[in-house]
Amino acid sequence: MENHDVPVLIVGGSLVGLSTAVFLGNHGVPSLVVERHRGTAIHPRAALVNQRAMEAYRAVGLEDEVEEAAAREFVQNGAIVSVESLGGKELDWYFRTINEGVEDISPSARLFVTQIGLEPVLLRAAKRLGARVEHASEAVSVEQDAEGVTVVVRPRDEGAERTVRARYVIAADGARSPIRERLGIPVLGHGSFSDSITIYFKADVRRLMGDRNLSVIYVFGPRLQGFFRFSIDLQAGFLVVNSTSDEAGTRSVRIGEDMSPETCIGYVREALGDPEIPVEIEDVQRWSASAEYAERLRDGRVFIAGDAAHVMPPTGGFGGNSGIEDGYNLAWKLAYVLNGRAGEELLETYEAERQPVGAFTTEQAYSRYVLRLDPTLGTDDLMPLVDEAAVEIGYRYRSPAVGAAAEDDATWEDPRAPSGRPGFRAPHLPIAVGGVERSTVDLFGRQFVVVAGSGGESWCAAARAAGSTLGVPVESHRVGNDVTDPSGTLEVVYGIGPDGAVLVRPDGFVAWRASATHPDPETELASALGAALARHAPIAAA
C-alpha cells in the first residue's frame, strides 16, 4: 500500500471530472483523477455545449480548441426539428439554428461536440495544468476524518491497491454514483420513466437529409418516438428510441428488452423513413431515462457533481452542461480554501447554490420530455417551461457568498434583459480594454473583480485596499478609464450608474453591488469581499 497526498481527488474522469480538473488547475490546484474506463469516451454522448459552459472553457483558454473539435464532428449551428421520419413529414421547428435569439447574450456560441471530440481536449488541458489522470482505476473505499479523506484506489488491470490521502474528494462517478450511495444521500424527482436504447449505426443518409442542416431531429412517428444525431459526413449516426407503438396503438417504453440487430435495424429504417436503406449496427446501449436530483451535494469533505448530483433526460441538452457548471462553481471555492484565502464555510455555499439550480434544471428537462415525447406521463404537476436561455445562463445563486436582498425572490431572469443583481451571472457586453475588443465576461475567471462606473474611482481604490487587507488580489476596472464601453449601456445594464460598482466572483457571478458612492467605500467593499470569502478578519498575505 503506497500513500500519495493530493489536494483534491476526483472520482470519475469523463466530461465533468476532467472539466473540474481543468478548472482546479486554472486556479493552481493539482488534482488526481481516477477513471474506471481505459480511456476517454468511445460513444458520442452529450453533444450540446451551451453558452454558459463555453464561457467556462473560454475562461481557461480552451474555447478555440473546443470549437475546432466541434467543427471536426458537426456542421455547426443547425436546427432542432421534429419529423414523422427523416425522409417524411416535418412537424415542427424548435430552433431554426441552435443560436437563434441568443447571439447577443454571450461572447460564446452554443456548439455541438460529442464527448468523443471534447474529452481529449479536456484531458490534455488537465494534464497541462497539473492534474494526474489514471484510467482503468477505481476508488473502492472512501473514508474521511477531520483532516482529510483516505481513498483506496485499485487498478482494474494489474498492480497493487494503494491509498491516496486527499484534502477533499469530488465524486463525479455517474448516475449510479457508488460514492453517493455509500454516503446515504437520497435522490428526489421522477425516477425512471423509460427503458431506452441508443443505437449507433452506419447508413448513408445524404439523400434523406437533403440540403437541411439539422443538429437534433426528434422522431414522432406512428410506431416510434426518439431522436437522431448524425456525423458530419452523414454516413453514420445514432438513434435514441424512447418508446414504440404496435399496430394496435399499444405503447411501450420497455425498449431495452429487445436489442437484437434485426429489431434495431428495423427501428433505424422506421425512423429514417426508408424500409430498404442499408444499415449496419455498430453498438447498442441500454439506459434508463429518469429525472432525479440529489437532496444534498456534500458530506463533510466529499462533494458530488455531474450525473451523481442530477440526472435528467436529454431534452434541452442540459445534463452535461449542468455538471460542467458544478465543477466551475466548486473549483474556485476549493482553491481559495486550500490556499488560505477563504474560510472553510465557503464550501457550504456549493450545495446552497448548485442544488436548487440542479433541481430546477432537472425539472425543466423533465417538462420538455413530457411535452415533447410522452404526454402520457401527465402534465398536471409539470413545472412551467422556462426559456432555454434562462435555464442555461439566467439562473440565480443564493448563499452567503452573494449579497442578494432578502425581499428579492427572483430565481431566474431572461439573460436578454439582465439586471446585474447579486446572485446572477455578470452580463455580457462588448467592451474594449487597451484598444482590444473583448467582452465583459473576459474580465472574470481567475480572481475577484470590481467593475466601477465612470465616476467610481473611490471604488477602485477601495478594491485595492480591501484586497490588501484580506490578502486577496482584487482587480478593478473603471468605465471610461480602464474599460471602453462602445454601447454606452454598461452602467445601466449592471445597475451601478456612474458612481456605483459591482464585485464579481471568480466564476463570473455578482457577489455585491452598490448603485452610488459610499461614505466609507473601503469598509463597505471589504465587508462584501469578506462575506464572499466566508471571512471577516484580516490575515497575512496568503
Number of strands: 25
| Number of helices, counting only DSSP H or I runs of 4 residues or more | 13
Shape: globular
CATH topology of the domain at 3-73 and 110-187 and 292-389: FAD/NAD(P)-binding domain
Termini gap? 34 Å
The CATH class assignment of the domain at 3-73 and 110-187 and 292-389 is Alpha Beta
Helix content: 25-40%
User: What structural category arises from helix and sheet content?
Assistant: alpha+beta
Counting copies of identical and different chains, the oligomeric state is: single chain
Task: Indicate the proportion of strand residues.
Answer: 25-35%
Radius of gyration: 24 Å
Taking all residues together, what is the mean pLDDT?
Answer: 94
Largest sheet: 9 strands, mixed
List segments where confidence is low: pLDDT < 50 over at least 5 consecutive residues: 538-542
Any idea what the CATH superfamily of the domain at 3-73 and 110-187 and 292-389 is called?
A: FAD/NAD(P)-binding domain
Proper CATH architecture of the domain at 3-73 and 110-187 and 292-389: 3-Layer(bba) Sandwich
SSE layout:
Layout: E1 3-11, H1 15-26, E2 31-35, E3 48-49, H2 51-59, H3 63-73, E4 79-83, E5 90-95, E6 111-112, H4 115-128, E7 132-135, E8 137-144, E9 149-155, E10 162-171, H5 178-183, E11 187-202, H6 206-209, E12 214-220, E13 224-230, E14 236-245, E15 251-252, H7 261-272, E16 280-294, E17 298-299, E18 302-304, E19 310-311, H8 319-338, H9 348-372, H10 388-393, E20 430-433, E21 436-439, E22 448-452, H11 457-470, E23 474-478, H12 490-493, E24 501-504, E25 510-514, H13 521-532
